């Protein structure tokens, strides 16, 4: 999204803004790094802030191992975690991320 936003003149501004509001800055299925030094997959974008979606944490960067899965709604005032950046799953040698965000019946 950031790259698309930087392409001045390529998109009609109101249409692009509507697209971002629909898809979100971090689309469902995106891999993100959190302030807590963990990786998570975006599982929902139905929050008041496009920058603070719902995520499912599954990987600890410190230990470089899977950790206990945890759902976080980053938009809640009591949630102190936040997204630092989007990550490339290939850079972490991670596959099968759809299992974290896609309903089980869709995987079969």
Automatic annotation (TrEMBL):
This is HDIG domain protein. It comes from Castellaniella defragrans (strain DSM 12143 / CCUG 39792 / 65Phen). It comes from the Bacteria.
